[in-house]
Amino acid sequence: MPAQQAPPPAQYGTPRPPADPGAATPGAVGGPPPVMWPDQSSAQQGAQPAQPLAPQQGAPQQGAYPAQPPAGQPGAYPPAGQPGAYPGAPQPGAYAAGAEQPGAYPPGTYPPGAYPPGAYPPGAHPASAPPASAPPAQYPGTPAAPPAVLWPSESASQAAGPAAGGQQTYPYQAFPAVPVDSEAPAQPPAGEAPPPRRRRRGKKTALLALAVLLVLALLGGGGFVGWKFVNDERKDDKSGAAAPDNCGSATKLRLIAAPDLVPVLESAVRATAPAAEGAKCPVVSVTAQEPAETVANKDQAQNYDGWVPSSTVWLRRGAADKLGFAATGQTLARSPIVVAMPKPYAEKLGWPAKQPAWAEITALTYSRTIPKFSMPDPLKDTTGLLATLAVYGALQRRTPDPGVAQLQALTLRSRLADPAADVQDLLKKMAGQNNPQEAVTAIGLFPTTEQKLWAYAREAHETELVPSYQPDALAEADYPLALKDGTDQEKKAIADKLTAWFAGQEGTTALANQGFRGPQGRDAGSAPAGPGFVAKYPQPFTPPQDPAVVKTLTEQWAQYKNLQFNVLVLVDASGSMNEPITDRSGNVTTKAGLLQKAGVLATALFGENTSVGMWMFGTPSAQSPPYVDVLPFGPLDEPLGGTTRRKRMGEVAGAYTAPAAAGTPLFETILRANADMQKRWTAESVNLIVVLTDGHDRDTPYAMPKADFFSKLQAGRDPKKPLPIHSIAYGGDADLPTLTELAKLTGGVAAPSTDPADLASAMAKIFLAARQAKK
To answer: Which one of 164, 379, 546, 614 is most buried, by most CB atoms within 10 A?
Structure first.
């Protein structure tokens, strides 16, 4: 099949001027053509061609293909039947119909093959093009009539070339090595990969046409790379990938790789496994596909010998799903996950001397100090995956309990402006922002790979973005190459050469030219050029090794919903709460002291959309009511007595003491709470009761047999209004069996607590269970 290359991604905004006034600018001779967004006109592209061909006397205006061009003049057709001849029956080099930009096509010979539909950028005729009087140039190693390129969604009739006759207009330059949506030549210098490709998610058919790139010969090289791109929007294709090639054993190694690394991977293939001159099949073929799609298409993955996802986390996920690839691989490149911030706002947070941590970002986002924060979907995007795991990891370092860390992490998730953001789209929007301050409120902060931020920083923008390297849990994309189990020695040898190339000088240079770090990462001692990029970033954290844990955390994050909670908390204030207890640290305290220490932490676990009330139950005398309403029911962040209900709740818990002698009307209080919450129950809310007690109903006029209690509770419940009753039992003397029976009857959870951290953990467990039940 013909060689195909990945076009580099679109850039964002006005190209930076070259340092050397004589250097090439986008669109000039020797320089890459400018990049346009889909809604950008050609007049907005940037620099104009340095050496445009002047229109000839008597010829149509510049931009029109001469209807009857005088022989030997710029714009003249090559002799009939020669490569590049037009119009007429499709000849090698014929140009396909499409929305081409104005510009007379100059004389010369062009690589054989039908040129795809789409717009080609204007620019000066390359200096190396033959003059009109010169004989047609010959391209070594190219077949006389190679087959047309077919993209996954393209039919043969669409790729065959133009119909006979007709007049078309083409740019006034030789056919460029790359189409408009690109910026690099098809044949980069040794060791330099073409800039990365930006994937678009709209206008699929037109963009596929613009993205096609034909490279049938490497001048003086004779080798080529077979490259395919798997479109992530091809939902109707059950395989999720292009059909396997027909090269059989001629192609020795078939790789599927993360799209952002493919341009450099192509350079590695050309350097280490070039095809023989005139060969129709590559030694190594490369298919670009997002890792999440590879995982989702197990059958299609069987067509490949190796996989280069953007993170080892995907490899482990693939191994768990029996994709067939090894669970570990050799790292080819690295790019840390950073948080992109407009520079003035970053400086307000203390940057660059202080790099905001994930814990700080979570708190600032939850308090709305950071106006907007967005993240990609962790189930579909590597940046989203690694950033989500980093948030969990950072918060777990602050507490030994994973349940508390999970609930705290979800406070950030609850405040995301966009939980399924497209980083490229956010960068494009940032490029259009003229005011950095407004950019913070209009678009906000977001995580991205350092490499993508480097691509943004290459151009001048009114809103300059800088990277923040999170010190409490810095994630890193590590691009491992993993082969299938049982791969033969020939394939392993080719893969080893690729790996060695990436680790060598040529590979690290090519990676640096695209904003990647080499396999050494932070230890290489160099950083991509740009404001705020650091050579030695923090030691990356280790994501969870167990794919099941990763799946649980990421699904919990992706499927999170902002739910309204109605919660009534019942706190034991009986004399038994003064009994001594030893916590996990070996310190002797009381059950009341245990609650007092944990109260403030527990209140922080309640989400914003929570209405809460608190009762304390105990009977210091025979005439005492079973409970006292110490926190009237209402929205948690609603003003209450000069403060908020949330702060008041923490104050009540922090000042908690139990009478020296008081009975425990546990059953009576639960019955009354059930009746109260049945009245407050709403279908759109998560409704629940939480009981914190040492678990014994005793020493009170309200005491009753357990059987009577459960009978009355059943009678007072409405099957159409589910109301789980969750219990947290203090100490080893708690009546956990009774509380467990209560939880089973009502659909709740019963959790023991012998340490202040256990209380918060139990609360986290309860709220996570309640969320799961609501789904």
So the answer is: 614
